[in-house]
Amino acid sequence: MENSILFLPGDGIGPEVTNEAVKVLKAIEKTFNKKFNYDFGLLGGNAIEKTGVSLPPKTWKACQTHKVIFVGAVGDSKYDSNPVELRPEHGFKLIRTELELYCNIRPVRLVPGLEKISPLKNEIASKGIDITIVRELTGGIYFGEKNRTKIVDGEKATDLMSYSSYEVERIGRIAFQLAQKRRKILTSVDKAHVLESSRLWREIMHNIKHDYPDVQYNDLYVDNAAMQIIKSPNKFDVIVTENMFGDILSDEASILSGSLGLLPSVSFNPNTTSLYEPVHGSAPDIAGKDLANPIAAILSIAMMLRHTFDLEHESNIIQKAVENVLKKGYHTQDILGGGKVVGTKEMGDLICSEILAE
Ligand code: IPM
Ligand code: MN
User: pLDDT tens for residues 307-347?
Assistant: First the structure.
């Protein structure tokens, strides 16, 4: 199905931010005379509630037949005591692995002129923040063997962190190519002085770097990287790292742009499909209260238009609409720095008005 989008709103604030994302896409359709097909499905806690599993067969089938997938957010602490297969995240991880969406791209950008919403001191923020994190998404400790055994004085739990050279090379090459299209600096983050999987990671990266002589390459240990991202964010261009380090560093880096609620992402495999989603989680504490920031979801639509549908102009219009609304001083409660606090729906409406005024 050419222009078909499968929306999986998910849990917590997922449905609210998905609504705003849909609203924005409809504003784009209207303004630019485009047509998309919208389908919706269950995923996560709400799917467990209605069908008993977090990835119902109907949703899985739809994932395989649609051009592209959009996920709102997945997770609900209500299921914390469930076995792994009956947790909301399980279905989500299944989509990632079954479609082998190994490459996760998370751009962190502080909009020039909006330094006041960054928690960093102006002298650091004003040097600019424009970092793209390339996170390996289908390997590492998330998917290695898990074990729990009884021992004399209690229990023992294991999560295996493993990577093959093939897995490292394919993500590494994507990161190098991305760096070539940007400022040509690539930082690979690992823990090679302690972890064997990191030593292999580093070896492979060093092997392939010779194919990209125009890229300035360097390695950082993850603890040091966590500090440098705060201290000198302007020194980073593209960061490539394994699954869990990428999960943690992307949440950390996101706040530099003002809020985790601003960060979009795409997970893809050049041979299968792409899944777009905000980086933030389901935030059950604020769910249903019209408090969530819909911008990460809206910018995920902008990424989708650019990368999947080749609609560069329409994508830029969304980006510009978001920046205009923020520059006018409107923001949701997660963003600090003064201005006028609006709810989820009003934020969506404001962004739509900017688009419709094009
Ligand atoms: C993310 C989320 C997921 C992850 C969870 C929901 C499994 O935190 O997309 O960053 O850790 O990958
Ligand atoms: Mn995360």
Answer: 999 999 999 999 999 999 999 999 999 998 788 999 999 99
Residue ID of nearest Cα to ligand 1 atom 2 = 281
pTM metric for this prediction: 0.92
Which atom of ligand 1 lies nearest, measured to the CA of 251? 10
Render 217-276 in DSSP notation, one character per residue.
EEEEEHHHHHHHHHH-GGG-SEEEE-HHHHHHHHHHHHGGGT-GGG-EEEEE-TTS-EEE
* Residue 74 in contact with ligand 1 by CB distance below 6 A: yes
In terms of Cβ atoms closer than 10 Å to its own Cβ (0-12, 13-18, 19+), residue 196 is: exposed
Which is nearest to 60 in space by CA: 83, 106, 91, 14? 91
Number of the ligand closest to the Cα of 104: 1
Point out the residues that are catalytic: 142, 191, 223, 247, 251
75 lines ligand 1 (CB under 6 A): yes
Given the CA of residue 96, which atom of ligand 1 is nearest to it?
A: 12
Tokens 């006028």 belong to which residue? 340
